[in-house]
Design goal:
single chain; 349 residues; alpha/beta; Metallo-beta-lactamase, Chain A; Rossmann fold; 7-stranded mixed β-sheet; 6-stranded mixed β-sheet; 9 helices; globular
Length: 349
């Protein structure tokens, strides 16, 4: 879960993914995606009134704008949609800054923000999951001579930036495994059904879409989740509040106990050691666990750093365990030192 406080010190006057506290003083607002830990304060009526009365704009993608318009219609006139993979000129005070949205692969509409000003080049990753090779495909990371731009600071999604989470399976592989479990079980008996346990309230758009595509049935969800997911383009058919039209339930559902297959998607339990056994585990109660991550693994995070070679890195997800936070700081220092050594610099920042 994001612990980023919203302020980018290199670009005074803007806030990203945080709208309460000191962020109410920012003149320009950005939203990387519509998950609750990146929207703190946006549901507050005083914050909404401040945005409207002060004529502030919230910059976001078209998909995120669709969600916000449905969720907070009062803000509809204060939304500015940004184009993807093209530089957008955004006024901040008396100047204009360049903002490029880079697809983040976390959920529909999620993006990274590449900010370029007179004095700094900053990448805010938000939540992301991207293969190492994919970073190199985006033209915005290269200058006019084809060289990788030097990034002054990366505000990094560090959810799994720990050596115990070296790699995660590709999401396509995880979803293929999940859908096979569902299909095999529901095909075996017309009375069989699946209880899908998802550890977080939101963030499973790709899961629902893949289940609908592969298993040919929507997922039964709560009315709150339906209200959220049904507003996302291409997801309206993938979720339902009617339990009778599907055999897959992400909601309390009373059915014959012998006919239920419980499946839990998670990433936290899947350390590198656990992954040696495969992407599926079954416990003594015959509950299935499938490894599925919408955040970058350690190796994916390290690949981003190796490619962009930033001067500095800001941790955007602090861990609950102080030892894990210390490990992250040590790993980040190691990567920064490695960059400096390669560039012939001996002085550490």
């Amino acid at each position: 879960m994001s612990t980023f406080e919203g302020i980018v010190e290199e670009i005074p006057g803007i806030s990203i993914d945080r709208f309460d506290g000191i962020n109410t003083e920012s003149a320009v607002l950005f939203l990387s995606h519509c998950h609750t830990d990146h929207m703190k304060g946006l549901d507050n009526e005083r914050v909404q009134s401040s945005i409207i009365e002060d004529n502030k704009y919230l910059y976001l993608t078209s998909i995120s704008a669709t969600i916000i318009k449905n969720r907070y219609p009062i803000l509809a006139n204060n939304l500015k949609e940004l184009t993807i993979e093209h530089a957008n000129s955004v006024p901040v005070g008396d100047e204009y800054i360049s903002v490029t949205c880079v697809p983040a692969g976390h959920c529909p509409g999620s993006v990274m923000f590449l900010f370029e000003t007179k004095n700094a080049c900053i990448l805010y990753t938000g939540d992301y999951r991207m293969a190492a090779s994919d970073f190199k495909k985006f033209k915005c990371f290269y200058d006019d001579f084809g060289l990788v731009k030097r990034i002054d600071k990366v505000y990094l999604d560090t959810t799994f930036f720990l050596e115990s989470y070296q790699t995660f399976p590709k999401r396509q592989d995880s979803l293929a495994a999940l859908c096979k479990i569902i299909s095999d079980w529901t095909a075996a008996d017309p009375e069989n059904y699946v209880s899908l346990d998802l550890p977080a309230q939101y963030g499973y758009e790709y899961v629902f879409k893949e289940i609908y595509s592969r298993c040919l049935m929507p997922v039964h969800v709560s009315s709150d989740k339906f209200e959220f997911y049904s507003k996302i383009p291409e997801l309206d058919k993938c979720v339902t509040t009617n339990p009778s039209v599907t055999k897959v339930h992400n909601w309390t559902y009373d059915g014959p106990s012998g006919k239920i297959r419980r499946i839990k998607l998670s990433a936290l339990r899947w350390t590198s050691d656990n992954l040696k056994k495969g992407v599926i585990e079954v416990d003594q109660n015959y509950k299935f666990y499938v490894c599925y991550s919408t955040h970058a693994s350690y190796q994916e995070g390290a690949a981003l750093i190796e490619f962009l070679k930033p001067k500095n890195i800001h941790i955007c997800v602090e861990q609950s365990d102080p030892a894990d936070n210390l490990e992250m700081m040590i790993l980040i220092d190691k990567h920064i030192r490695k960059i400096q050594v390669k560039e012939g610099k001996s002085q550490f920042f």
